[in-house]
Design a protein that fits this description.
23 helices, six-stranded mixed beta sheet, alpha/beta, elongated, 650 residues, four-stranded antiparallel beta sheet, binds magnesium ion, binds adenosine-5'-triphosphate
Length: 650
């Protein structure tokens, strides 16, 4: 089942978020509550015995409750009619025992379900989280985070509540109503029929209610997701909001969304009120009618007083099972919606694991020849076939790589049309191109954050699609333009890039390479917690930690997306000096905007119009490529050659 893209909420600071996010989806009509809920079975299976036992216990408890009217009948027609006090006391004792048994059984049911259901919820949440981690970047580009968050919290809570109450009680109440009605019909079938008359309109109302409620429930849950997105974005973007004085418009936007949600919730309440009115009123009227008819019959002597008492107390005992149906149906609808929403995420396809058996995403890509620009002998691997390690050391190779973002229009020109580039083993290559030319995109293809549309990328001759993701990502380390840090200590953030068991020695070395020694001077040294997203650090500090994370694992391949942009010239020079040592035995692709960064690399490649249009040393390209000279200097022509060398600063 394809996923429904999350309704995107436009949160430009000056624009109010879309006040009416995508309402009920079009699949609404065809979906069946039962079918949706059946998908929960794999999660419920392990606790089915407990749930089953709990249901049987609850049915027993309910039936015990139904015996009470029969004891009443025996008391009224026997000891009470015969004025036998001992018999009345005995009857009272029976009633007390029955009441106790009913209470104990219901308590036992609660105890039986509480723990396993908390386990089911936790298991589903863990599965969702694991799945989210494995979903491709393209999925996360498409889905609003609040939508995912609300699915992992509110929706799962609704599911646990459904498993705890409606699932059991729809069954228990159904059985109780059937047994109760049976008892009433046996007592007196005319009175029984009087009671049964409202059943038909009640059932019709339930049918209508279910359909309407399901649509509103879906809308409400989606709106909760949108609201969560707004809250999350405004918390993360609080600096921008305050900086631009947008708190009022942001609050207004939030107010509008929550107002919409309130409207939807009120609609839910109105629907519930309507069904409740029908479900409560009609049986009440029927009981009244039965009382009148029964009283007349007793007066005529056609019916014993005890039977009428038993009949009416049975009817009254059935009141709660009937009345709660509306409520239980509503909860079931919400649970079905929650299940749909949960599986919309779970059904999204995860990244293929890669590895030897994985299909190459490169139909015929390798057949067009390597067309390598490098001088190293091209050791080409057949797609999806592993080369022995000895044949490696070919470096990083892009072969006819074509890439279009999955959500781009299918007839648009791909962002990367035909990228051919060979970075020799141990070489560092700078990647230069105008802003928006696709440099970041190209770097993201190497660790397979996005899949190439056509062509292939090889690491030491091995197609990256033939490597398992784990293998691939242990070979390649990345540092992105946005240095993302996590709420953890400085040390933990850096060591994320290292293999298990890496310790202080590796950490110290990486911090030194990235000139991030400031970390030692933090209040608790490398054990200092960085705030959420590392916002308690300066931009340059974050960037250096991200760089340390990239180099800490001594990767064979290093992909750096403009790693030094936020550094002052002196720090940059120091980082560069240290990086040179790392780059000496690493194959590296470094996106660069400044001549100083470019000079770190052995050669430079120019990305333009979706292709690599020139490769050479910085000085060669300054002479031969006007576009390159322009990008490096901001001026056309070669006269700035000296100026850019001066930019090196050393
Ligand atoms: N997730 C995405 N989905 C669709 N299009 C995208 C996505 N990410 C980037 N793009 C588009 O791809 C183009 C290239 O983006 P990219 O980030 O690769 O450029 P860049 O060369 O790194 O630019 P810069 O020098 O500014 O960092 C841009 O036009 C951008 O709009
Ligand atoms: Mg970029």
């Amino acid at each position: 089942m394809p996923t429904k893209p999350a309704p995107a909420t436009d949160l430009a600071p000056d624009a109010a978020p879309d006040a009416a996010p995508d309402p009920a989806p079009d699949v609404e009509e065809k979906r069946s509550t039962v079918r949706a809920l059946l998908r929960l079975w794999p999660y419920v299976r392990p606790v089915r015995v407990r749930l089953g036992t709990a249901a049987v216990t609850a049915i027993l408890a309910s039936c015990v409750g139904l015996v009470i009217p029969l004891v009443l009948k025996w008391m009224v027609d026997g000891p009470v009619a015969d004025r036998d006090p001992a018999g009345v006391w005995l009857g009272a004792l029976y009633l007390l025992l029955l009441g106790l048994a009913e209470a104990l059984l219901f308590g036992l049911r609660r105890w039986l379900v509480a723990r396993p259901l908390a386990g089911v919820e936790a298991g589903m949440r863990a599965d969702l989280y694991r799945h989210l981690q494995r979903l491709p970047v393209a999925f996360h580009d498409r889905w609003a985070s609040g939508q995912l968050l609300s699915r992992g919290t509110t929706d799962l809570m609704l599911l646990r509540m459904f498993l705890a109450f409606p699932l059991t009680f729809l069954l228990v109440n159904g059985v109780t109503i059937l047994v109760g009605v049976g008892i009433m019909l046996v007592q007196d079938w005319t009175l029984g029929l009087v009671i049964l008359v409202p059943a038909i309109p009640v059932m019709i109302t339930c049918g209508i209610f279910e359909k309407k409620y399901s649509a509103v429930a879906r809308r409400a849950q989606d709106q909760v997701g949108d609201l969560t997105t707004v809250v999350e974005e405004s918390v993360l973007g609080i600096r921008i909001i305050k900086g631009f004085g947008r708190h009022r418009s942001q609050a207004r936007a939030f107010h509008e969304l929550s107002h919409t949600l309130r409207g939807t919730e009120l609609r839910k309440a109105r629907l519930l009120a309507a069904i409740w009115a029908v479900i409560v009123t009609l049986p009440e009227v029927a009981i009244g009618a039965a009382l009148v008819v029964g009283a007349v019959q007793v007066a005529d002597g056609a019916l014993s007083a005890g039977t009428l008492v038993a009949f009416l107390s049975t009817a009254l005992a059935l009141r709660w099972p009937v009345e709660s149906i509306g409520f239980l149906l509503a909860m079931s609808q919400e649970a079905a919606t929650a299940t749909d929403r949960y599986f919309e995420v779970m059904d999204a396809e995860v990244e293929s694991p890669g590895g030897a058996g994985a299909p190459s995403s490169v139909p015929g890509g390798g057949e067009r020849g390597p067309a390598s620009r490098g001088a190293a002998a091209p050791t080409r691997a057949a797609p999806a076939a592993r080369l022995p390690a000895a044949a490696g050391a070919d470096g990083l190779r892009f072969e006819h790589v074509r890439f279009r973002y999955p959500d781009a229009a299918p007839d648009s020109t791909p962002l990367l049309t035909d990228v051919d580039l060979h970075i020799r083993s141990g070489e560092s290559m700078a990647l230069v191109g105008a802003t928006g030319s696709g440099k970041t995109t190209l770097t993201a293809l190497v660790p397979r954050l996005h899949e190439v549309t056509e062509g292939r990328i090889t690491l030491d001759g091995e197609d990256i699609t033939a490597l398992s993701r784990e293998e691939l990502r242990s070979m390649v380390a990345v540092a992105f333009e946005e240095p993302t840090l996590f709420s953890a200590t400085v040390g933990q953030n850096v060591l994320m890039g290292a293999a298990e068991g890496a310790g202080d020695a590796e950490l110290g070395r990486a911090l030194a390479v990235a000139q991030a020694d400031f970390a030692h001077a933090l209040p608790q040294g490398t054990g200092t917690q960085v705030g959420e997203q590392g916002l308690s650090l300066s931009g340059g500090q974050r960037q250096r930690l991200a760089l340390a994370r990239a180099v800490v694992g001594r990767p064979r391949f290093l992909v750096l997306d403009d790693p030094l942009s936020a550094l002052d010239v002196h720090t940059e020079a120091a980082v560069e000096a240290a990086l040179r040592q790392v780059l000496a035995d690493t194959t590296a692709l470094i996106v660069a905007h400044r001549p100083s960064t470019v000079l770190l690399a052995d050669r430079v490649a120019l990305l333009s119009g979706g292709r690599i249009t020139a490769v050479g040393t910085h000085h060669e390209l300054l002479r031969t490529s006007a576009e390159y000279a322009h990008l490096m200097s901001g001026l056309d022509g070669h006269e700035n050659d000296e100026g850019s060398q001066g930019g090196d600063g050393r």
